[in-house]
Please model this.
Amino acid sequence: MLLALKGIRKVYRMGEVAFPALKGVDLEVEEGEMLAIMGPSGSGKSTLLHILGLLDRPTEGEYVLMDRPTSRLTEDERAFLRNRFIGFVFQAFFLLPRLSALENVEVPLAYAGVPPGTRRRRALELLERVGLLEKANNLPNQLSGGQRQRVAIARALALNPPLLLADEPTGALDTRTGEEILALFQELNREGTTVILVTHEPHVAEKTNRIVRVLDGEIVADERRRHG
Amino acid sequence: MAEEKRIGLSLAETLRIAWKAIAANPLRSALTALGVIIGVAAVVALTMVGQGTTRNVTQLLEGLGTNLLTVGPAQGNRGPGGGLVRAGGPETIPLSDAYAIQEAFAEEVVGVAPVAQGRFQIRSGSTNFQATVVGTWPDFAKVRNAEPEKGSFFTWDDVTAKRRVAVLGYGVAEDLFGTDDPLGQRIRINGIPFTVVGVLPDKGDQGFVSTNYQVFVPLSTYLQRLARPEAGEAKVNTIYLQGASRDRLKDLQERLTRFLAERHGLTDPNDYDFSVANQQDALESVNATTRTLTLFLGGVAAISLLVGGIGIMNIMLVSVTERTREIGVRKALGARPRDILAQFLAESIVLSVGGGTLGVVLGLGLAGAVGRALTVTPVFSPGSAAVAFFFAVLVGIFFGLYPAWRAARLDPVEALRYE
Model:
């Protein structure tokens, strides 16, 4: 098993008001799965993704990632796990604006302590993999939305993480480009990477083999299917 | 956990990222560093000019003679030079004091040179100008470190015989005779002919203490032919004395004061119509003044550096807020809190080190310019430049720490959500 959530609760406090974002979520994900987390905005799906990505800590419950309980980890250890085991892809790409495509891909490698030469070679490999080798020295604002998302994916794959987390990865793209990006995720999944997508678009969810539906902080459905 | 082995970003890498962030906003970065630049430049320039001035004054005082004591008019009427050197003023000291000192302190005083002086017309051929004419004794050469480089000083014989001989200051000799040999030439002081017997070496243009524009004649000749003869006892302006021993100069000064008070029939020090200045005291008072001034300037510079540091902190806080998103992304990609801390700290340190370096360079230039304007040769002191530089770096670290710490502990979810 790649990961397991056990009785995860998340309560946001804003002064006197407590807002429960997650009300006891249990979820297990096997290696090699590709699943979509669906739900309307405010359902708690983003919070769930943040907890899966070790960006947020649950108020209650245990998150076990690759056999490691994560609730007692230090900030540094969580940073290490994010670096090595989790690749993030965001709706708004979140490329660092002052860095070229190549340098963006190098960022996780740099934090992993990969020496510059190796780092450069690996980043070029990844850009080639997403078909953007000739754009290596372009700044993000010189790239189209689809190209930026490809750079973001290349960056997420930098350290070959077993888990790829994507938050509305096609949300800012036109349909055709979105399809291309999804095809890339499917390809990566076939090669063995576990992919978890958060989306509210059914046609995106259809590309996966498991759909987890979230409503009001709870999992209301967990549908496994054949490859779409 | 394998985590412990992780090196993270190298120093070079961290500095490169910091430099990129700084270079992305050149005007803002320059303005931020300006506070530090000005602070460091101020410290460097002020200490350099200050030390240059001190060295000038010290050299001046030391060049005046060795173990010099000066008997002059009462305190409060001493004019510039701390009473050590006199540039004219009324003649108030009876010449007989000089003889009395010579006799009473024969063991401890190796030279006595009473001085009376005034401005007179000097002429040779068609050249003529005003210069200070000093009537004195032959000991002046020794006591005031004024041995001629050509010819010799006049002798006791000349004094006793009231001969019309003159020793010229370097500048006077040059103006009158150019490249010709002045020795044996005839000059006229106030129309009275004198024969040049010696020329003093170049003593620089240090204002009132330089002998360059002075002419020295036997005191007896001066009193008889140049000074307006007044009724009563002959009086002089100043008596210069050379003590035999440096260690006992202070003691000699005190006994000399008592001796003269007794001679003048005075008991209350407030009534003393003379004072005795000591070369050592003058040096010490210069040093004390310089120390105070340096401390004061150091304080002012420290405040300006502090203000510079606050400027850095201000901009770094703005920068952290502006780059909240970047911080979130970096954290998602595996940056540890300490990586983020290092990144922002590096930025403020690069700013302050850059500012410090530019400040030292600017300070050198400024010291040169101010030095030229004040005709002081600035003395570069690596120590104070280093102190200013490291203080600037310290300011960068201190004021960079809080913004960097704020950046490091940002919640990644909040940071990513930040618009």
Notes: The first helix of chain A runs from residue 45 to 52. Chain A has a mean pLDDT of 93. The CA atoms of residues 213 and 220 of chain A lie 6 Å apart.
